[in-house]
Amino acid sequence: MKRHVVLIGLPGSGKTTVGRLAAERLGAPFVDVDALIVRKMQMPVARIFAEFGEARFRQVERETVAAALAGPPSVIAPGGGWAAQPGLLEETRPSSFIIYLRTMAMTAAMRARAADDRPLLMGPDPAEQMRTLLREREPFYARADAEVPNDGKLERAVAQVVALARERAGW
Fold first, then answer.
1. Tell me, what's the pLDDT at 119?
2. To bridge 75 with a disulfide, which of 23, 63, 67, 135 should be the other Cys (CB 3.0-4.6 Å)?
3. Among candidates 8, 12, 19, 41, which has minimal Cα distance to 107?
4. Higher pLDDT residue, 114 or 99?
5. CA neighbor of 6 nearest in space, from 57, 79, 86
6. Residue 168's Cα: distance from chain center in Å?
């Protein structure tokens, strides 16, 4: 029986890029949670944070992931902070295989810098902010069912996610 593949990790860890490519190879739907939230709220993530606060964003994020989990088996890429919300990994586990895309904080910061819609990274030192996020979130990320490094070759990370989905998530 196929289970969802949920990718977790820092902003800039490659959840969207790796997820989209892995879903394509698996013939699976791809769910970009942040993109769905932007469409639903009709504003960029940074503006959602500014106007409604992080708590409201996290609520919409939880609802969006829950809706995806209720649908057909998919590759799902929630935001980087989703996995650090108490209880969400445990709620997700019965229907999902969770993969942590491990990335060094500096690599993630450089990738995320290209996207200027990262509200938790706006400030004078995005690399230090990313290191702080990693320290806070690593205990949650470490609870994933598997870990795939994604600091170097994109193709290798995609291949490992696809292999794990086939071997351990029923694809």
1. 56
2. 23
3. 12
4. 99
5. 79
6. 19
User: Considering the entire predicted model, what is its pTM?
Assistant: 0.93
Residues 53-78 as b/e (b if ≥16 CB within 10 A, e otherwise) read: eeeebbebbbebbeebbeeebbbbbb
b/e per residue, 17-44, with b = 16+ CB within 10 A?
Answer: bbbebbbeebebebbbbbebbbeebeee
Residue-level pLDDT at 114: 58
Cα angle: 149, vertex 158, 108; to 5 degrees? 45
DSSP state, residue 83: G
**What b-and-e string marks burial along 102-138, b requiring 16 or more CB atoms within 10 Å of the CB?**
bbbbebbbebbeeeebbbbbeeeebbebbbebbeebe
CA dihedral 134, 140, 142, 148 (to 10 degrees): -70
| Spatial distance between the Cα atoms of 100 and 42, rounded to a whole number of angstroms | 29
Helices (H), 8-125: 15-26, 33-41, 45-70, 88-92, 105-113
Average of per-residue pLDDT across 6-20: 96
The whole-number pLDDT of residue 120 equals 52
Residue 49: which pLDDT band, with cuts at 50, 70 and 90? confident
